[in-house]
Amino acid sequence: MGMAALRIGDIAARTGLSAPTIRYYESVGLLAPPSRSTTGYRHYTDAIVEELRFIKKAQVLGFSLEEIGEILKLSRAGKTPCSHVLDLARRHLAAVDERIRQLSRFRGSLAGELAKWDGVKEPTCGGLCQIIADADDQAATPIHVELTRRPRRPTRKNR
After folding, report:
1. pTM of the full predicted structure?
2. Of 1, 34, 89, 151, most Cβ neighbours within 10 A?
């Protein structure tokens, strides 16, 4: 092997990804299985560092692991994946625009409900909360909005 064999800790340090995440990417086929030493340690190349950085950047741009796998498969087959990437990115942008429209409608509804109760120091509720019970029924699909953003990392449960 002409290139230096890197161990998973080296790869993790170079990419900012955890060793379990790297092993997960391997298990779902995003990375080719690395060669192994006689003692069983994984040996990676610098090319894997580039692929992991690519995967990370693609995720930041909103591509799913499945989509990233498709892109990598095209690249590894010697095909230029850029037109496929542009198509996916256009679809993602359309989905983001639709989500913004939904959230804008939701914001208006929520602000309207809040305005009904604005200035009431302590609403008196018997049983169910009257703020919710008195809310207007919405024809729109309910929207769940997370108030905090949690990093998405593979867990043992969803592997």
Report:
1. 0.69
2. 34
**CATH code at position 57:** 1.10.1660.10
What residues make up the domain containing 41?
A: 8-68
* Distance between CA atoms of residues 124 and 53, nearest Å: 55
User: Would you say 22 and 156 are in contact if contact means Cβ atoms under 8 Å apart?
Assistant: no
Residue pair 28/55 in contact (Cβ under 8 Å)? The answer is no
HEC profile of the chain: CCCCCECHHHHHHHHCCCHHHHHHHHHCCCCCCCEECCCCCEEECHHHHHHHHHHHHHHHCCCCHHHHHHHHHHHHCCCCCHHHHHHHHHHHHHHHHHHHHHHHHHHHHHHHHHHHHCCCCCCCCCCCCHHHHCCCCCCCCCCCCCCCCCCCCCCCCCC
Domain count along the chain: 2
Fill in the amino acid letter for 6: L
